[in-house]
TrEMBL record:
Belongs to the diacylglycerol/lipid kinase family. GO terms for molecular function: ATP binding; ATP-dependent diacylglycerol kinase activity; metal ion binding. NCBIfam families: PRK13059.1, YegS/Rv2252/BmrU family lipid kinase. Keywords: ATP-binding, Kinase, Lipid biosynthesis, Lipid metabolism, Magnesium, Metal-binding, Nucleotide-binding, Phospholipid biosynthesis, Phospholipid metabolism, Transferase. The keyword Lipid biosynthesis applies. Residues 1-130 form the DAGKc domain. Its cofactor is Mg(2+). InterPro entries: ATP-NAD_kinase_N, Diacylglycerol/lipid_kinase, Diacylglycerol_kinase_cat_dom, Lipid_Phosphate_FormReg, NAD/diacylglycerol_kinase_sf, YegS/DAGK_C. PROSITE patterns: DAGK (PS50146). This is Diacylglycerol kinase catalytic region.
Length: 300
């Protein structure tokens, strides 16, 4: 029998996981995997690190939103723990899970049980924190923690869109300098996104050609523009069209540096951040994750 450590955030997704706990544990047990549950709290993470380093567990499965998955991935990477990570989505957007081709809790269990893994890229900010899907700054990035929890429960990612629309009248541009490989760009912007994969901020297929194994980050810069032009950009995103717009700059880079003279709202995988100015390096294929067989075929 294999052993797994099941780390879960009890409050993610409207306290969903506690009600699904028996289903998750029994699903593993029926396939010969003894899953030890670990309830994430705000307490010290030393016990969790010790458990991950103990050699007892064959893999770790993490359930929660993007912030929870980020937390567990950082423990693995910062402590050089070589162990596959299973992603069981239970947050609002679940960007990283969807980038991996994982669309539901039940599907994620089946994917882990199939046992197929891949090595994926991660971003590394200021030599201190890894991110899995998105590092963002500027307008709208704080909607995830300013949106009413009941609204998120009832509407899912659409709650963020509603909150974002309500803030359009208050948006302000900011000065930004970005050096991305050989590119140097300076100007006034409304938003920047550093993305690993096709989905960010709950928007599916935001970058249809993005690849989380190629060693490159995708950079999206939204220039200062009128509310009408901004609405046009949002409409293209919501309609799942290609973000081809004169007010949007899209770059690929292995390394980039960002700075601004103005204070910015920042998020790392949907959680508040103060890592700015930011120096970002993409680490190619350093995190092992369970994925659907189709993803392996697509990458290959």
């Amino acid at each position: 029998m294999k052993n797994a450590l099941f780390v879960y955030n009890p409050v993610s997704g409207g306290h969903r996981i506690p009600s699904e706990l028996d289903f998750i544990l029994s699903s593993f047990q029926e396939k010969g995997i003894l899953a030890q549950p670990y309830r994430l709290t705000d307490a010290n993470s030393d016990y969790l690190i010790n458990a991950l380093q103990s050699g007892v567990y064959d893999f770790v499965a993490a359930s929660g939103g993007d912030g929870t998955i980020n937390f567990v991935a950082n423990l693995l990477l910062n402590n050089d723990i070589k162990m596959p990570l299973g992603v069981i989505p239970s947050g609002t957007c679940n960007d990283f899970a969807k980038c991996l081709g994982i669309n539901s809790l039940k599907e994620s269990i089946d994917i882990i049980l199939q046992g197929e893994t891949i090595m994926c890229d991660v971003g590394y900010i200021n030599n201190s924190q890894y991110f899995l899907s998105t590092f963002a700054g500027g307008n709208f990035v704080d909607v995830s923690f300013n949106t009413n929890s009941e609204l998120k429960k009832n509407f899912g990612p659409f709650a963020y869109y509603l909150k974002g629309i309500s803030e359009v009248a208050n948006i302000k541009s900011f000065d930004l300098k970005i050096t991305a490989d050989e590119h140097i760009i300076e100007g006034k912007f409304l938003l920047f996104l550093i993305v690993n994969g096709k989905q960010a901020a709950g928007f599916p297929n935001l970058l249809k050609q993005a690849d989380y194994t190629d060693g490159y980050m995708d950079i999206i810069l939204v220039k200062k523009c009128s509310n009408i032009n901004l609405a046009s950009i949002f409409f293209k995103v919501l309609s799942k069209e290609s973000v081809n717009d004169k007010n949007v700059i899209i770059l690929k880079a292995r390394k980039c540096e960002l700075s601004s003279k103005m204070p910015l709202a920042l998020t790392v995988d949907g959680e508040r951040s103060e890592l700015f100015p930011a120096s970002i390096e993409f680490k190619q294929r350093i995190l092992e994750v369970f994925v659907p067989i189709e993803e392996i075929n697509n990458i290959s």
